[in-house]
Amino acid sequence: LIAGAMAFAPVTAMAADLTIGFSQIGSESGWRAAETTVTKQEAEKRGIDLKFADAQQKQENQIKALRSFIAQGVDAILLAPVVATGWDDVLEEAKDAEIPVVLLDRTVDAPEDLYLTAVTSDLVHEGRVAGQWLVDDAAGEKCDIVELQGTTGSSPAIDRKTGFEEAIAGHDNLEIVRSQTGDFTRSQGKVVMESFLKAVGGENICALYAHNDDMAVGAIQAIKEAGLKPGEDIKIVSIDSVPDIHLAMANGEANATIELTPNMAGPALDALETYFADGTVPPKWIQTESKLYTLEDDNMAVYEMKKDLGY
Ligand code: AHR
């Protein structure tokens, strides 16, 4: 075992010998589908045997998948945790079995010694960038905001809300007048935006903050059906940078997005390969970048480029 490190697997396996279980949340968004594609590609490229389990948005399915991976004696586990809490027991079981767990794209509320590392963006920062974009765009004018939250209890929903609220705090012209979950899906984004438009009146909504692009794309449809111009009558800022939001931005129907790379697996598998090769313990957090795109970017070019990236 690695001196001074976690009591995980003995460091002997070569990359091509590795068997890794991947518990994926589901396929709620374009970004999620891309992450799945990229993870499979990254494993194949390295000759890793990847065992894939789709949890269909249910934590209980993820816990079952983890227990199955443990029973099969995989070398390591990749976990994209649907919600933040409720992981301690199964992570303890993985640790007892000396199987390192790497978190992908979302964090958990569990002791840090229960996982090897987490590959995620700074989720609070993403919310702050979105909020700051709106602060700048509103330029002191009164602006009532509606918010589409991600999956309730998930770390991106919690952190992106926190960051956004931090950024608009102290700007009395900005107020969140409605906030509800759209579960990170296009269909719920549309349904919830329809209810916002009905409750508040489209002419009273200045901006939409959506915790992901898919919900924003659904909301764009609802705004159009209400006879309003998304991107003009209602400004839209969201997160992920999926191809469809860039197409919407190229058409002037959305205003800003913050990029989340779907390639969480590259850094995760690099860390695991090094760990198994020479025992190097990675930092607890491997942070991916967050880049803001606005209408000043060539969004049609970004759309074309992104379409080839597994989305
Ligand atoms: O955890 C990352 C988030 O999950 C993405 O922003 C969203 O699209 C996905 O469903």
TrEMBL record:
Q: Which residues form the Periplasmic binding protein domain?
A: 20-263
State the source organism's domain of life. Answer: Bacteria
Q: Which InterPro entries match?
A: Peripla_BP_I, SBP_2_dom, YtfQ_transport
Where mainly found? Answer: other
Signal peptide bounds: 1-15
Q: Look up keyword rRNA processing and say if it applies.
A: no
Keyword Signal carried by entry: yes
The molecule here is called: ABC transporter substrate-binding protein
> What organism is recorded for this protein?
Roseibium salinum
The record lists the lineage as: Bacteria, Pseudomonadati, Pseudomonadota, Alphaproteobacteria, Hyphomicrobiales
